[in-house]
């Protein structure tokens, strides 16, 4: 049985779902000759870890309790009642995490898994890669930081996996890497990489007011608590930057042209969420509807997409043919078209659910298993 020590950063929806996947897949992994040994789980304030990370692990009961505590909004510190080791405080937790990474990195290796949404993990990640640890990311921020941070993080390419940073569990990164590795140069990528904005654009296509569609998306749980986090296009821009850097573009986030679906005067600094939804967004309906009509007269539809081609890297609304893969997109699926030498006229198309804790966590789990050969 191959044992893979694992330390998880982040106990939000994706992190909790990952732990549940690990527990529920024990028998499957045993058949494959693999055991995922969770030695520690960390949130922004506390770390719970096994008493001896070389030989012991957090048992499945403890992992289930972690999920229960965090889903109820409780602190990991309460898990001390179960007899586990606890470190409280942000600074103290980070120091202990690095101690564990240094110990296991030299001894058996460690899968350092970042399912947070924080930029605070970047410094730790840059340190653990030199300790012999493998890094698995669902967090996009480390890959969209400065080029210096990015170069450090990918300096050991065999030891990093980040499929779930773009398209959740869809094989976007793996497919792109296969094309690049085979010497098939990718010259154009265009894709709808936000399930929220994919849903919004396909609904306004049917004539529904933009404001009503956004409110409906929020009620369905498709958006962040503040829908402007989705409508700003920043999440799509981060995904576009990850893809562009994989293609060799040495650019930063501020190099990307980003079209926000609301003006600055309706931003979080100027207007509350309630004000935006009640009075602000309604004023955008006519403009969006005019753009929908204009596209329709041209035989096209509107989609919020990222475009990477040559030196061009931008995200925003584009008119696209109705009969194209992106034009046929309905609902919250992600769709990505890759054009290369081999896929010149008919692109390589990847489509499917590109969001959701379950799908994203499944992608992270697959990434962890993909590096098992690096462990003794």
Automatic annotation (TrEMBL):
Coiled coil regions, renumbered to chain: none
Entry keyword set: Amino-acid biosynthesis, Methionine biosynthesis, NADP, Oxidoreductase, Threonine biosynthesis
MF GO annotations: homoserine dehydrogenase activity; NADP binding
Class of the enzyme per the UniProt entry, highest EC level: oxidoreductase
Catalytic residue positions: 239 (proton donor)
TM segment ranges: none
Pfam families in the cross-refs: Homoserine_dh, NAD_binding_3
Residues annotated as binding NADP(+): 10-15
Homoserine dehydrogenase catalytic domain: residues covered: 171-369
Protein residues bound to NADPH: 140
UniProt EC number: 1.1.1.3
Binding of L-homoserine, residues: 224
GO biological process, one term: methionine biosynthetic process
Keyword Cell cycle applies: no
Cofactor dependence: a metal cation
Pathway(s) of this molecule: Amino-acid biosynthesis; L-methionine biosynthesis via de novo pathway; L-homoserine from L-aspartate: step 3/3; Amino-acid biosynthesis; L-threonine biosynthesis; L-threonine from L-aspartate: step 3/5
Superkingdom as given in the UniProt entry: Eukaryota
Domain Aspartate/homoserine dehydrogenase NAD-binding: 10-156
Keyword set includes NADP: yes
Catalytic activity field: L-homoserine + NADP(+) = L-aspartate 4-semialdehyde + NADPH + H(+)
InterPro entries in the record: Asp/hSer_DH_NAD-bd (IPR005106), Bifunc_Aspkin/hSer_DH (IPR011147), HDH_cat (IPR001342), HDH_CS (IPR019811), HDH_short (IPR022697), NAD(P)-bd_dom_sf (IPR036291)
SUPFAM superfamilies on file: Glyceraldehyde-3-phosphate dehydrogenase-like, C-terminal domain, NAD(P)-binding Rossmann-fold domains
Family to which the UniProt record says this protein belongs: Belongs to the homoserine dehydrogenase family.
Name the UniProt record assigns to this protein: Homoserine dehydrogenase
Taxonomic lineage: Eukaryota, Viridiplantae, Streptophyta, Embryophyta, Tracheophyta
């Amino acid at each position: 049985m191959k044992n893979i020590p694992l330390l998880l950063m982040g106990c939000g929806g994706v992190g909790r779902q990952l732990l549940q996947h690990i527990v529920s897949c024990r028998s499957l992994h045993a058949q494959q000759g693999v055991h995922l040994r969770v030695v520690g789980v960390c949130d922004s304030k506390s770390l719970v870890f096994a008493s001896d990370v070389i030989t012991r692990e957090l048992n499945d009961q403890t992992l289930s309790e972690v999920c229960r505590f965090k889903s109820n909004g409780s602190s990991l510190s309460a898990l001390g009642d179960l007899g586990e080791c606890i470190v409280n405080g942000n600074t103290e937790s980070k120091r202990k995490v690095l101690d564990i990474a240094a110990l296991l990195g030299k001894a058996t290796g460690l899968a350092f898994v970042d399912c947070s949404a924080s930029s605070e993990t970047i410094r730790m990640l840059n340190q653990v890669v030199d300790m012999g640890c493998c890094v698995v990311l669902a967090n996009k921020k480390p890959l969209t930081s400065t080029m210096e941070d990015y170069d450090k993080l990918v300096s050991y390419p065999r030891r990093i996996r980040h499929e779930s940073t773009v398209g959740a569990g869809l094989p976007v990164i793996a497919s792109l890497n296969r094309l690049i590795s085979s010497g098939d140069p990718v010259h154009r990528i265009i894709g709808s990489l936000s399930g929220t904005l994919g849903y919004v654009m396909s609904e306004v296509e049917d004539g529904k007011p933009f404001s009503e569609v956004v409110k409906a998306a929020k009620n369905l749980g498709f958006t962040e608590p503040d829908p402007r986090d989705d409508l700003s296009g920043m999440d799509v821009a981060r995904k576009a930057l990850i893809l562009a850097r994989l293609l060799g573009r040495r650019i930063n986030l501020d190099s990307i042209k980003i079209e926000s679906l609301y003006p600055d005067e309706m931003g979080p600094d100027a207007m509350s969420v309630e004000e935006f939804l009640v009075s602000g967004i309604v004023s955008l309906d006519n403009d969006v509807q005019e753009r929908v009509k204009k596209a329709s007269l041209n035989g096209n539809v509107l989609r919020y997409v990222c475009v990477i081609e040559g030196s061009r890297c931008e995200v925003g609304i584009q008119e696209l043919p109705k009969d194209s893969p992106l034009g046929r997109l309905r609902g919250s699926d992600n769709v990505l078209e890759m054009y290369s030498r081999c896929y010149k006229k008919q692109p390589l198309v990847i489509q499917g659910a590109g969001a959701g804790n379950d799908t994203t966590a499944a992608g992270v789990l697959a990434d962890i298993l993909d590096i098992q050969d690096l462990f003794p």
